[in-house]
Design brief:
It is an enzyme of class 2 (transferase). This is non-specific serine/threonine protein kinase. Pfam families: Pkinase. By secondary structure, the protein is α+β, with helices and mostly antiparallel strands. It has 3 domains: 130 residues, no CATH class; 218 residues, Transferase(Phosphotransferase), domain 1, CATH 1.10.510; 114 residues. Helices cover 50% and strands 12% of the residues. It is flat.
């Protein structure tokens, strides 16, 4: 249990135990009411008082006037932390005082401890004993043991320790991961022990499956961080002639702010003429395995890793293995990675990264375009709007844009340009507005009539006025509104 979790648990106890108390002289004060539970327990028979109990069981100096999280915050030793929690739980467990609260605290705390890999022994006399469960995880042939904070040991299970094939497999996995030690996206390993056939490695926070299923609303930027870390890790491995052959969510770990690859137990170094055989038994994570290799493990190659990468990308963005839900920004990339025609898959991880970059640039352009569209609708004029409008003018797409977005108030944008640009914009409209209205879509003339009318009212340049009035006269042939605008202009002697 790390320090944060330890303090979290003590604060949980404090929430129930910190209350008003009355001293022997009727003095009122705030303090811990754990002594009330202690006095109505069998522990009070064997100990003078609660202070004596804590002193005899761990040499703790208990002070009822301080919160547990304050007076014991300096306890760093893992065994002492466990002993302190064990003492508190035993008081609750053996007390007849407010049993409903005791049962609530005990039940929640025991779940919390199990989550933190702490085993609970419940003896027949009612006493609880806590101890660390050092087995962090188990695979088919090995166990992951916690050595101390931040360090784990991967070792063969007793049944496989004398088996030369599994000894070789363990050593081979270690050697391949050691070759990748300079890559920040591969888990660090060290200290291989040829007698126990084990090695040490960094301790991660959780695997990718746990992270995706427990984290709520992972932001897009974090999803991209996951994808880039995994792709760059596999790129480094492939560039060093190592293929993973067993990439899935359980073999991608969250290590602080990074996501790293691990478990190269089925990896293959293509630079040397040897490999590890494996049965073709379907694994729990078979959905990430290249289907073209099911039944013949030797068919797994770099393109099989590409397949697995595609499935990982898909899962990160959908949290699902249901292909019908696989619609997201990188759907094309996923489909190319996982094509059943191996020839159509990406050749390298670099190609995957390249297409992801292209999709991101496309998305950014779309996002920028939406921002510009929004500004134009609101009549906001800035450099970004100016550049965009002038690009539409140069590509002769301005009229279509005005119709598509129903920009009746676009005249307000035009008059904010320099005079020469106003002339160019109006000339572009004058040349193209008839075609842009669309066959039979006479109501679209109202858009251009409103624009021209606004410009006529808000310019003192004769040439600009002349072009705008020309547009208005053309629209008046089809729309009564445009005729009314012309009448108003003439009444104003414009």
């Amino acid at each position: 249990m790390n320090y944060t979790e330890y303090i979290k648990l003590l604060r949980y106890f404090d929430n129930y135990l910190w209350d008003k108390k009355v001293g022997e002289t009727n003095y009122n004060y705030n303090g811990l009411i754990l002594d009330a539970y202690f006095e109505l327990s069998i522990l009070s028979i064997d100990y003078l008082d609660i202070e004596d109990f804590f002193d005899c069981n761990g040499k703790f100096k208990y002070d009822e006037t301080k919160l547990l999280s304050e007076q014991f915050k300096e306890v760093k030793n893992p065994d002492k932390k466990l002993k302190l929690i064990e003492n508190i739980l035993n008081i609750f467990n053996l007390s007849s005082y407010n049993t409903e609260v005791s049962e609530t605290i005990n039940s929640k705390t025991l779940v919390f401890l199990k989550r933190n890999r702490i085993m609970i022994n419940n003896f027949s006399n009612g006493f609880l004993a806590l101890k660390y469960n050092n087995i962090v995880d188990e695979g088919s042939y090995c166990s992951i043991i916690k050595v101390h904070e931040g360090i784990l040991r991967k070792e063969l299970k007793p049944f496989y320790r004398e088996n030369p094939d599994f000894q070789k497999r363990m050593k081979y996995e270690y050697e391949n991961m050691l070759k990748l030690h300079d890559c920040p996206y591969v888990l660090n390993v060290y200290g291989y022990d040829s007698e126990t056939h084990s090695y040490l490695m960094e301790e991660a926070d959780m695997n990718l499956h746990e992270y995706i299923t427990t984290e709520i609303n992972i932001p897009f930027e974090q999803k991209m961080k996951i994808i880039y870390d995994v792709l760059n890790g596999m790129k480094y491995a492939h560039n060093h002639s190592i293929i993973h052959r067993d990439l899935h969510l359980g073999n991608i770990l969250k290590l602080r702010n990074d996501f790293v690859l691990c478990d190269f137990g089925l990896s293959k170094d293509e630079s040397i003429e040897r490999s590890l055989k494996s049965s073709s038994t379907e694994k729990n994570n078979h959905i990430f395995l290249d289907p073209l290799a099911i039944g013949d493990f030797k068919k797994l190659d770099k393109k099989s890793d590409i397949y697995s990468l595609g499935k990982v990308i898909d899962y990160v963005f959908t949290a699902s293995v249901d292909e019908s839900k696989s619609q997201h920004l990188f759907t094309f990339v996923v489909e190319k990675c996982t094509s059943r025609n191996k020839e159509k898959r990406y050749e390298t991880v670099d190609q995957v990264l390249s297409d992801i970059e292209l999709k991101l640039k496309e998305q950014n352009r779309e996002l920028d375009k939406k921002k510009v569209d929004n500004k134009i609708h609101k009549g906001i004029f800035d450099m970004q709007v100016s550049d965009y409008i002038l690009r539409l003018v140069r590509s002769d797409r301005l009229c279509d844009y005005l119709v598509k977005h129903k920009l009746y108030s676009f005249g307000n944008i035009i008059v904010q340009f320099e005079k020469t640009d106003q002339i160019n914009i109006l000339q572009t409209i004058n040349y193209g507005y008839i075609d842009a209205t669309g066959f039979g879509q006479f109501h679209n003339y109202d858009i251009f009539a409103r624009i021209a009318y606004f410009v006529c009212l808000n310019t003192d340049e004769s040439k600009i006025f002349s072009i705008a009035k020309d547009i208005l006269e053309g629209c008046a042939e089809y729309r009564y509104n445009a005729e009314d605008y012309l009448d108003e202009i003439e009444k104003l002697n414009l």
